[in-house]
Write a structure and sequence with these properties.
The complex is a heterotrimer of chains A (about 280), B (about 300) and C (about 450). With about 280 residues, chain A is mainly α. In chain A, about 75% of the residues lie in helices and about 0% in strands. In chain B, strands 1-2 form a two-stranded antiparallel ribbon. Classes of the chains: A mainly alpha (about 280), B mainly alpha (about 300), C alpha/beta (about 450).
Chain lengths: ~280, ~300, ~450
């Protein structure tokens, strides 16, 4: 009996070791570009592209924070981060709020034109920004929005992806749960906020993470509609170093590391809710 | 659908209108309208620097487009990329999700690692991989490893036979973390009791995967395939940064073609005709996908 | 849990909304700053300038100069916006989108060969009134030529650029090459292609290749390689800028392209050179820009030299690249006279000298070289660049179809080079086919939009 338990325990232990070791190795491979970026950001310019033929490229031998100092002196990084967070936060507020309402209606209501709207949402999902950039810009200029926050935010609130995702998620919520709320006398909007939203943290967290990442990496649109140093967003700020001849990759890498930190923090933070959301929802699993 | 009570029935239509109108209005204003504009420009001769000289030329742009072998090449490349990257990336994402679906200590850390490439901009990823893929063993990490294994070096990005596959490999690696997140949600939705029952019956891990996990993930897989496909059709940044569509057009994609024709070379009207054809392809594709992923509607 | 999330979420949103609220109000106030509001409240003219963001010294120069001007000229107030372009194509996009809504700034910077593209499309206006033939005499001929289209001056530049042949003396000596001989070359006696090839061959080893050909898949290729074609006998495009047929696809051009492709086929140059290949000792020689002098002086830990741009063995005709960003007045400018007056001042001898020094490029005005800030250009290696600019520089083709040409040509050359690298041999028929398609695409673009 006791030898059996110990063999099971041993198996468990081996499983655990395999789990951590395997994940660790694959994980390192996955983060290698970030590691390289981090190492490069600590190296002097002349060393960045040296040793590209060996693993030594991942080791900064003459590490220093000079590149970071350069970034902080060149850029008003706080202002850049503020600008970026602002516009993305505004997009996300609109995105999560309006698109989840729309997704909810498409999932749980019967109404005229529903099929049409759903088709529209799906059809517009694949529109590449590059193909509609110019007409959209013309629209912005006719609205007088060029060089204002509106141009950065409002066109990106409607997102077919988010609507679709919300709709799929809400479809899986049992009708009984919602009906129970109606029987208690709740209206639609109240039911949505008091019953549906609390059990849908996962989908909100997912949409939040995905859209945040997408906008954080936006370059072309902010570049076209915004002009002026005081309105720089993060990707525009990184370009400051790309545009400087000769191009100093050391400074670029430092700027990129700075730009990645908020994203990683955001991901770690949101992931907690993402996981807890699933665990506490009670209806799933 | 909710069918029972009358509170809801009375004003369902009105409520639905209130809920969908803001999103749909914005959708029309900032996606549909620009799209229609693009289609409108496609029947004009329109040099991007001289909007004042726009001339209506009927379907001339389309005729030219269909005779342009670069366009067809871009079309083929886009399809090839999509057909290959979708299964590869989905499988990779599922594999990763299985690795980190368990709620064990430290799992959040690993998830962050797998998601990390997503947190770096595509431009940077592309620059980095251009360096890693470098053709010369004395300057490229991958080729120097091949050399130490006694293999010939490969011109990953400057040989037309390998360039697109190199981009596919990198893209799958970069994008898998995103789909992994969705798979994790899907995996956690499979009742643990099913696995417990299977364990009691003495099922192996592989059997559990085939008979419980995969069927349980059916709708998630459909969804992931759909969004991966949508992203794949839009491929642009990687060829723009890494290969500029070359060598010999082997990595030129439709969006890349539209962008360079329209903005870089200024043939805006012509580029719009390519965009219009692209719209038709992707809209059809999405509606077919919708049929497959949402059978009940 | 639920409360927690909601509280955090709403706090974040509330904070950011307040912060952004401030931003958006200021946004609306200065709002259409790019859209020419020609007069400020007190009746003074106001001008906006776009130029690419550059290094700190340049940004500082701009801030100081604009400040200086604004204090001295209360009636013409100037504001500059630094444009954070990712590459010159992105900058052109921004110009193109502004064109569609008539919201170009009053003055904007244009890359040299784009001047004719913009001029032909009436995006920029002639400056002859502000820069007479007499004024232009002080400018190096290459920049005057580049900024002229259809007989009129459309832009004015403070700086120039050049390309020359850099060599790593340590590596050359190791390969047994007579470095002193190369050091002593003059503008009348530059190294020839066969010498270049010989050096490249001897210097190719396990660790490094013999030479470096620019591989940016973009404007760098037509820019850096054009002198080779001219030296062999034919430019990319004819003098009047209306045809490429018989030029870019001439026998001379095929021969030139084959020479370059052969270097790659033989493994003497990398098809995918790393960034700073020369600095990182991964190649023994390179055709590098005038801007590389500064980088190498600062960072190189080896003995290096630079000599004149190589010439064709057949003609021995010395040619070198040139061209840089230039200032132009846009069609949307409401106060052309004010803008012209400002440019006259901006491009005076002292300003050109200090700007050129700040950006570390050769100045366009001969008189600027007499000032203290340009002192370094009196001596080798920088003096060599100035010498090339005055004697051998030829601007890129002045044609309205340049944007289209440049893209297609760079693409064709990338194809030729990659085919040479994969097959380890040069196929002249393939080169001809590629260059023919460049000529055909040029004709297509030119005939569609510009032919009379």
């Amino acid at each position: 009996m006791s030898s059996r338990t110990s063999s099971i325990e041993r198996q468990k232990l081996i499983g655990k070791i395999l789990f951590y070791l395997g994940n660790f190795i694959i994980g390192i491979i996955f983060v290698s570009p970030l590691l390289w970026m981090l190492c490069a950001s600590l190296k002097p310019e002349a060393e960045i592209f040296a040793n590209m033929n060996s693993i030594r490229t991942f080791i900064p031998t003459h590490a220093s924070f000079n590149n970071y100092i350069e970034v902080f002196t060149r850029l008003n990084i706080l202002n850049v981060l503020k600008n970026t967070f602002c516009y993305i936060a505004l997009i996300l507020v609109g995105d999560l709020f309006l698109n989840s309402l729309c997704g909810y209606a498409l999932a749980k209501f019967d109404f005229k034109g529903k099929g049409l709207i759903l088709n529209l949402v799906i059809a517009l999902m694949v529109l590449p920004m590059e193909a509609i950039m110019l007409p959209l810009y013309i629209e912005m200029s006719q609205l007088g929005w060029v060089n204002t926050l509106q141009a950065l935010v409002i066109p990106f609130i409607p997102k077919c992806f988010s609507i679709y995702m919300f709709r799929q998620f809400f479809s899986d919520i049992p009708d009984e749960l919602i009906e129970a709320a109606y029987i208690d006398g709740s209206g639609h909007i109240r039911t949505f906020f008091s019953i549906v939203v609390p059990i849908s943290k996962t989908v909100y967290a997912t949409v939040f993470i995905l859209d945040f990442v997408a906008h954080w990496n936006d370059f072309m649109w902010p570049f076209l509609v915004m002009t002026g140093e005081e309105k720089r967003t993060i990707q525009l700020a990184v370009q400051v170093f790309f545009g400087t001849q000769p191009v100093h990759y050391s400074a670029i890498m430092a700027a990129l590391v700075i730009s990645a930190v908020p994203m990683i923090l955001m991901f770690i933070f949101m992931q907690k809710y993402y996981v807890e959301g699933i665990a506490s929802s009670g209806i799933k699993g | 659908m909710i069918k029972v009570n009358n509170v809801k029935n009375r004003n369902e239509g009105t409520s639905a209108a209130v809920l969908v109108t803001p999103s749909v209005f914005l959708l029309i204003a900032f996606l549909l309208v620009p799209m229609i504009y693009t289609v409108y420009f496609s029947v004009f001769r329109y040099q991007i620097m001289r909007p004042q000289d726009m001339t209506f030329i009927n379907f001339e742009n389309y005729i030219k487009l269909f005779q342009d072998k670069d366009f067809w090449q871009a079309f083929k490349n886009t399809i090839y990329f999509t057909v290959v990257v979708v299964p590869v990336q989905t499988a990779l994402a599922l594999g990763l999700a299985l690795l980190v679906a368990a709620r064990t200590r430290g799992v959040a850390f690993f998830r962050t690692m797998y998601f990390a490439p997503q947190l770096t901009s595509m431009v940077v990823i592309s620059i980095l991989w251009t360096i890693l893929y470098n053709s010369n063993p004395s300057t490229g990490l991958i080729n120097s490893m091949l050399k130490s294994l006694g293999m010939e070096s490969i011109n990953f990005l400057s040989n037309k036979k390998t360039a697109m596959n190199s981009i596919i490999f990198m893209s799958a690696w970069q994008g898998a973390g995103y789909q992994m997140m969705i798979f994790i949600a899907g995996l956690q939705a499979i009742p643990a009791s099913q696995y417990e029952a299977a364990s009691v019956d003495g099922a192996t891990a592989f059997q559990k995967l085939v008979y419980i996990t995969l069927p349980g993930l059916k709708s998630t897989i459909k969804y992931v395939v759909m969004i991966t496909m949508i992203q794949a059709m839009k491929l642009f940044t990687q060829p723009y940064v890494m290969t500029k569509g070359g060598p010999q057009n082997s990595t030129k994609t439709l969006v890349y073609y539209i962008y360079t024709e329209g903005f870089q070379e200024g043939n805006f009207g012509y580029a719009c005709s390519a965009a219009a054809v692209f719209f038709i392809i992707v809209v059809t594709m999405s509606l077919v996908m919708k049929r497959l992923t949402m059978p009940k509607d | 849990m639920k409360k927690n999330l909601l509280t955090i979420f709403s706090t974040v949103m509330a904070v950011s909304l307040t912060a952004c609220g401030g931003a958006s109000t200021t946004g609306t106030v200065q709002d259409q700053s790019t859209q020419a509001e020609s007069k400020t409240a007190d009746g003074a003219a106001s001008l906006t300038i776009w130029s690419p963001t550059d290094k700190e010294s340049v940004e500082k120069w701009w801030a100081e100069k604009i400040d200086e001007w604004n204090k001295a000229n209360p009636d013409i107030q100037v504001k500059r916006d630094a444009i954070d372009r990712s590459d010159s194509y992105a900058y052109d996009n921004k110009v193109a989108t502004a064109v569609t809504s008539n919201s170009l700034p009053d003055i904007f910077f244009v890359d040299g060969p784009q001047v004719s593209y913009y001029a032909a499309n009436d995006i920029i206006v002639p400056l002859d009134k502000y820069f007479t033939a007499e004024d232009l005499k002080d400018f190096v001929p290459s920049t005057v030529a580049q900024c002229t289209y259809d007989g009129k001056t459309y832009a004015i530049s403070a700086t120039e650029s050049s390309v020359a042949f850099y060599y790593n003396k340590d590596m050359l000596r190791e390969a047994g090459i007579d470095v002193d001989d190369i050091d002593k070359r003059t503008v009348d006696n530059p190294i020839t292609w066969s010498e270049l090839r010989n050096i490249a061959e001897k210097c190719t080893t396990e660790d490094h290749v013999g030479t470096h050909i620019i591989m940016d898949h973009g404007e760098g290729i037509p820019y850096a390689l054009e002198p080779m074609y001219i030296s062999q006998g034919k430019d990319y495009i004819n003098e009047t800028g209306d045809t490429a047929e018989g030029y870019v696809n001439s026998d001379e051009a095929v021969k030139t392209s084959a020479f370059l492709a052969q270097l790659i086929a033989d493994g003497y140059a990398n098809i995918e050179p790393i960034t700073d290949e020369f600095l990182n000792k991964a190649c023994a020689t390179m055709l590098g820009g005038s801007w590389d002098v500064a980088t190498l002086t600062e960072n190189a830990d080896f003995d290096w030299g630079v000599t004149y741009y190589p010439v064709s063995d057949d003609t021995k005709k010395a040619v070198s690249p040139c061209g840089d960003w230039s200032a132009a007045i846009s069609k949307d400018c409401k106060n052309v006279d004010a803008a012209g007056k400002f440019l006259q001042w901006l491009m005076n001898t002292d300003n050109v000298a200090t700007y050129a020094a700040a950006i570390a490029k050769p100045a366009t005005r001969n008189s600027s070289y007499d000032t203290e800030s340009m002192a370094a250009y009196k001596d080798y290696p920088l003096s060599l660049m100035v010498e090339q600019l005055n004697h051998t520089a030829v601007p890129r083709p002045r044609t309205p179809s340049y944007a289209s040409f440049s893209t297609k040509y760079a693409e064709a050359m990338s194809n030729i080079f990659s085919a040479a690298a994969s097959d380890h041999k040069v196929d002249e028929a393939y080169i001809k086919e590629q260059l023919d398609s460049v000529a055909a695409d040029f004709a297509e673009d030119y005939n569609t939009y510009y032919a009379k």
